[in-house]
Amino acid sequence: MFDVLMYLFETYIHTEAELRVDQDKLEQDLTDAG
Q1: In Å, what is the CA distance from 3 to each residue of 8, 11, 14, 17?
Q2: Which InterPro entries does this chain map to (predicted)?
Q3: What is the pLDDT of residues 1-34, one digit of tens each?
Q4: What are the b/e assignments for 1-34, b being 16+ CB within 10 Å?
Q5: Measuring CA to CA, how many Å separate 33 from each of 15, 19, 22, 23, 24?
Q6: What per-residue confidence (pLDDT) applies to 13?
Q7: What pLDDT does 19 receive?
């Protein structure tokens, strides 16, 4: 049971981090485009 929770937690954190990076990159691209 604990292994499943750890897997879900790690997957969620990893996905959140990727989305945050993509959001920052998108924001920067839009700013550069003016």
Answers
A1: 9, 12, 16, 21
A2: Smg (IPR007456)
A3: 789 989 988 888 877 777 777 778 888 888 998 7
A4: eeeeeeeeeeeeeeeeeeeeeeeeeeeeeeeeee
A5: 27, 21, 16, 15, 14
A6: 81
A7: 72
